[in-house]
Amino acid sequence: MQVVLGGIHVTALPEEGLAHADAIVSGEAEGLWTQVLEDAEKGRLGRTRSLTQRRVYKQEGWPDLVGLPMPRRDLTQSLRYVPFGVVQTTRGCPFPCEFCSVSTYNGTTFRFRPVPDVIRELEQCAPRVLFGDDNVMVHVKYSRELFEAMVPLRKHWVGQASLAALHKVENVALMARAGCKALFIGFESVDDVAVTGAGKRQNKPRKYHDIVRMLADHGIAVWGSFIFGLDDDRGDSFRRTVEFCVESKLTMALFALLTPYPGTRLYQRLVEEQRLTKDRWWLSTDHDTDAPFFTPKHLTRDELRAGWVRAWREMYAYPAIAKRYDFGLEHSWIQNVAFWPINLLMHELAERKIAGGQRDFRKHRLLDVPFGL
Question: I want to staple 164 with a disulfide (CB 3.0 to 4.6 A). Which of 170, 202, 203, 306 is the partner?
Answer without folding.
Answer: 202
